[in-house]
Amino acid sequence: MKHLLLLHGALGSADDLNPLQRVLEDSFVIHRLHFTGHGGTSLPQTPFSVSLFAQDVLDYLEQQQLEVVNIFGYSMGGYVGMYLARHYAHRIMRIATLGTKFIWTEAIAAKETGMMDPERIKQKVPAFAQQLQQKHAPQNWEEVMKRTVIMLTAMGASNPLQPQDYAAIGQPVLVLSGDRDKMVHAEETIAVYKQLPNGSVGILPATPHALEQVDTALLAGVLKKFFG
Q1: Which of 11, 57, 86, 141 has its CA 20 to 30 A from that of 34?
Q2: How many other CB atoms are found less than 10 A from the CB of residue 34?
Q3: Cis amide leading into 138 (omega within 30)
Q4: How many other C-beta atoms are found inside a 10 Å radius of the C-beta of residue 189?
Q5: Are 31 and 65 in contact (CB under 8 A)?
Q6: DSSP of 81-144, one letter per residue?
């Protein structure tokens, strides 16, 4: 069977992808990993960055003795996957993304990070704070969030992937967007699709940004057809 690596989003962990793994593992050899500092792994001495998370993937491929792999990335995981496809093309066969924000500016980064206030989250949505605490224990989830804010701010100042980078990605790429995603609008996903030499695009119906609210069977069906 083909090997498929599932990459989680910002503030997430590999465990977020458990439901998707269960419906895909009859068709693929599934791989997952926590990005550095996520899911209880040790916080790095260097800042969070796309290049750091990309190196996590490359290290994992070496550990598993995989020369090449297919990637599905959710949200930030999709960005990391696309970064790998651009800079380490010989290691990536096909890539699919869902809810990935490709366009970053200082204004966009400020808007997204403005919602990442630990004190406000603890007061307004304590259940989410508790979820993050459990997800990243024994690490402090507030530190994970702080580092994520710094990373996104840096991406807003200098986006690691520019429009010309997508034009240089030759692998088959499927970019997916949810029709109810308020963080990543379909127009943004379509704009990136148009830059890809071998790209395709899909809009999932009745689909918001949050992965736990995505119809897993629907997504799995699309991925099985694409990675087939």
Answers
A1: 86
A2: 18
A3: yes
A4: 26
A5: no
A6: HHHHHHH-GGGEEEEEEES------HHHHHHHHTT--HHHHHHH-HHHHHHHHHHHTTS-HHHH
Residue 203 backbone phi and psi in degrees, to 5:
-115, 120
Residue 151 — very low, low, confident or very high, per pLDDT cuts 50/70/90? very high
**Angstrom distance (rounded) from CA 173 to CA 41:** 30
Strand-pair category, 29-32 with 69-74: unpaired
Residues 130/10/158/106 CA torsion (nearest 10 deg): -50
Q: What is residue 166's predicted lDDT score, i.e. its pLDDT?
A: 98
**What pLDDT is attached to residue 194?**
97
Positive or negative, the Cα torsion across 171, 182, 188, 147? negative
1-10: string of b/e by CB count within 10 Å (b at 16+)?
eebbbbbbbb
Per residue in 107-144, pLDDT (tens digit) is 999 999 999 999 999 999 999 999 999 999 999 999 99
Q: Which residue reads 């204004």 in tokens? A: 107
Q: Which two tokens stand for residue 224?
A: 């099985």
Phi-psi group of 173: left, alpha or beta (phi > 0 → left; psi -120 to 50 → alpha; rest → beta): beta
Which DSSP letter does residue 17 get?
Answer: G
Q: Give buried/exposed letters for 50-75 (b at 16+ CB in 10 A, else e).
A: bebbbbbbeebbeeeeeeebbbbbbb
Q: What is the pLDDT of residues 162-213, one digit of tens each?
A: 999 999 999 999 999 999 999 999 999 999 999 999 999 999 999 999 999 9
